[in-house]
Specification:
By secondary structure, this protein is an alpha/beta fold. The protein contains 3 helices and 5 strands, in the order αβαββββα. About 35% of the residues lie in helices and about 30% in strands.
Length: about 170
């Protein structure tokens, strides 16, 4: 009985050490910034995506970050314009890597498929970099593969979901 209890206590101690060690390693990389600037959104030249999706992504990022910021109060200001002082500013740069246009499912309604549903899908891949305004160093980097399907099988909807994911990444790192 004593030997089993001893092994159990060692096991519990190891689990506790790993849990608290993981908590210590998960540092909040976006803590200490007052302003978030949604800066540049570009399209990779070989992505094959229309340039207008860059402005759509920039607007979606701004909208979703402001929506979450209204609830959680992460930053004093989230904007598209650079403030005069770069102290306490983090820049968000994004690059669209690729996309898949909406498939035929959007045009083929469920009335044409007996007992079926909408089956179209679209997706967009992009990466985001959070850059310190003072130092110019990358604070956080995140890749996003946003998909939409069903009744909302548009690239615009996928972009909106990807922007919402970035807002959740900011929440996790604040």
């Amino acid at each position: 009985m004593g030997k089993r209890f001893g092994w159990f206590m060692v096991f519990v101690a190891v689990i506790i050490v790993f849990c608290f060690h993981g908590q210590a390693l998960a540092k909040k990389r976006l803590k200490g910034y007052d302003t978030l600037v949604v800066n540049n959104v570009t399209v990779r030249p070989d992505a094959g995506i229309p340039e207008r999706y860059a402005s759509d992504l920039k607007d979606a990022l701004l909208r979703q970050l402001q929506r979450y910021n209204a609830k959680y109060k992460w930053f004093k200001k989230i904007t598209k314009t650079m403030p005069s002082s770069k102290a306490g500013v983090v820049l968000l740069d994004a690059e669209i890597l690729s996309y898949v246009r909406a498939t035929a499912g959007r045009r083929v309604r469920k009335s044409f498929i007996p007992g079926g549903e909408w089956f179209g899908s679209a997706s967009v891949q992009f990466n985001c970099k959070f850059i310190d305004g003072d130092k110019g160093s990358v604070v956080l980097k995140q890749d996003v593969n946003a998909k939409s399907s069903g009744t909302d099988d548009t690239v615009e909807y996928a972009i909106e979901r990807g922007a919402e994911y970035i807002a959740k990444v900011v929440k996790k790192n604040r």
